[in-house]
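Hi U.,

Before I forget, here's the chain from the pilot set. I'm dumping it here mostly so it's searchable later in email.
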Amino acid sequence: MRSMLFVPGDRPERFAKAEASGADAVIFDLEDAVAAANRPRARVEIANYLKVSERHVPLWVRINPIETDDALPDIAAIAFSRPDGILLPKARNGDDVRRLDHWLEVLETAHGFDAGSIRVIPLITESAQAVLNAASFAPAPSRVIGLTWGAEDLAADLGSLGNKTEAGEYEPPYVMASTLCLYAAAAAGVAAIETVDTEVKDMAAVERRARASRRAGYTAKLAIHPAQIPAIHAAFTPSAAEIDWAQRVLAAFRAAPGQGALTLDGKLLDRPHVRQAERILAAAPQR
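Structure:
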C-alpha cells in the first residue's frame, strides 16, 4: 500500500470515483471533512456504500477522536458493514488505541466477524500531548498495521502561524513530530505512513516531498486529492535500479550463507542491507 485517499463521508457521489481513482486504499472521513450536523447522514451513506462495494481496494473510515461523543456512534453505525480499517484521529496516547481495540473486539464478536479483522491506523501527533506521548504507541494491538501523523492540527495546538517554510518544507517542530512517528512505527513493528500534502496543483513538489519521505522510512502516504495519487505512487514504487540492487544483494548473501558481511559493487554490505533489500522487493510491483 502506497496511498490512502480521503473522501468526505457526506459526499456519496464521490465514493465510487475515489475507489476508482487508482489509490491503494480509500478513507471515508467522518471527522474534519464533515460538519457535525451532517455526521448522522454521513454514517448511513458510508455504511450503505460499504455493504454494496466490491472492494476493489481496501475501504477505511476515519472516525472522530476517541474522547468525543461522536466516536462510539461512528463505530457502531459502520461496524456491521465491516470496513477494512479505522483511522483514529487525534490519538492522545496508546490507551486511546487500546480503547478502540476493545470496542472493535466487542463489535466484531457481535457481528460474527473474525477477531482483529478490522484494522487500525492511529494519527499520533496531532497535539503537543500526543507528541510527548509518542513512545506509548508501541507496542500496539495486533490489529494496528501502521502509524501516521498530522501537522495541521498540531500547528493549531502549538499556536503556530504555519508549519512550513516559504520553500514548502516543514519547520523543526513538525520535522520532530514526523521523526517520532517513524521511531514509534519502527518500535511497534508496523508501517510508517506519511501525512497529507496540502498541495493540489504542483505535483512535482508532491512527488519530491514523497520521495524524501520514502527515503526517511515511510512506506505510504495519505492523500487529499486524486491528482496526488500518480506522484505518490511514483515516489513509493521502487525503481528498476533499486529492484536490481536488492535482487543482487539477496543473491550474493544466498551464495555465501556463512558470511555476515561481503562486498558488492565496491561497497561493504552486512545484515542491515539484507533487510533493506527485502523491504524494497516487498514494495516492488508483483509480476
